[in-house]
Amino acid sequence: MEHVKIKSQQAIRTIYISIFSNTFLALVKGIAGVLGNSYALIADAIESTTDIFSSFLVLFGLKYSTKPADENHPYGHGKAEPLITFAVVGFLLISATIIFIESIHNIQKPHSTPHPFTLYVLGAIILFKEISYRYVLKKSKETNSSSLKADAWHHRSDAVTSLMAFIGISIALYFGKGFETADDWAALLASLFIVYNAFLIFRPALGEIMDEHLHDDLIADIRKSAASVKGVIDTEKCFVRKMGMVYIVDLHVIVNGKLSVVEGHEIAHSVKSQLLRDLPDLSDILVHIEPDFV
Predict the structure, then answer these.
(1) Reading across the β-sheet that carries 282-292, which strands appear in turn?
(2) Neighbours of 115 (CB within 10 A)
(3) What are the tens digits of pLDDT across the range 215-266?
(4) Which of 27, 162, 165, 237 has its Cβ near the most Cβ atoms within 10 Å?
(5) Are the CB atoms for 62 and 139 separated by under 8 Å?
C-alpha cells in the first residue's frame, strides 16, 4: 500500500496549495472589487472564499478516506471522498445563489462604472486560475482522486467567473453611460456557469457512490493480467468498485475442473498476487474459481 500512501501525500500537498492560493486571491479580489467599484469582482471574491472552505473539506476527506480498514469498515474509508465531493458541490451552489441574488439586486439600482485598473487584476487572476486548474486536474488524474478533481473544477469555474467579470467591465468601460450594470450581468452569467460546473462535479461522484460501471479499461487490464497466470484458462465475471483512490475487485477465473481444491486455491492466490503487482491502484481482489470440464 506504499503506492497509495504516496498518492495520498501528493493529493494533500496539492490541496494545501489550493488553500493558500484561494485565500490570497479572495483578499485581492475583495479589495480590488471594493476599491474598483466592481460587483463582478466582489462576486468573484465570494466564490474564492467558498473555495477556501471547500478545499478544507477536500483536505479532511482525503485524510479520512486513506485511513486503513478496520473492524467497522472492512473495505476501508474511501467512500468518504465522493461524500466530501457532494459537500463541495453544496458550497458551489451556495456561492452561485449568493452571486445570483446580489447580481439581480445590483442590476436594479444605479451605480458608477468600474475602474479600469480592475481589468489588470482580473487578467492576472484568469491566467493564474487557469494554470491552477490544469495543475490540480493533472494531480487528480495521477492520484485518482475525485475530490481533487472537484477542486480542480473550482479553479476552472473561478477562471471563467473572472473572465465574465473582465468582459462585463470591458463593456461598461467601452460603452460608458448606460452600461454601468454590464459587470453585474457578467456576475449573473457566472453564477449560472457555476451551477453547471457543480453538476459536472456531482455526476461522477454519484456514480462512484452507487458503484456505477465506469471502469472498462481497468477491467480489460485485469483480465489480461489474470490470464497470464499459469493454470488460468479464462476469466468470467469481473466487478470493480472505486474506493477513494483505489479499487476493489471481484473476479471469477476459469480453471481445469479436475484440479483439487488446494490447486484451485493456489491459482487464486497467484492471480491476486499478479494483479497487485501489475496494477498498483488495486487495493484488494476477491478471486472466485470456476471449473471447466471441457
Answers:
(1) 234-243, 246-256, 282-292
(2) 15
(3) 888 999 999 999 999 999 999 999 998 887 788 899 999 999 999 999 999 9
(4) 165
(5) no
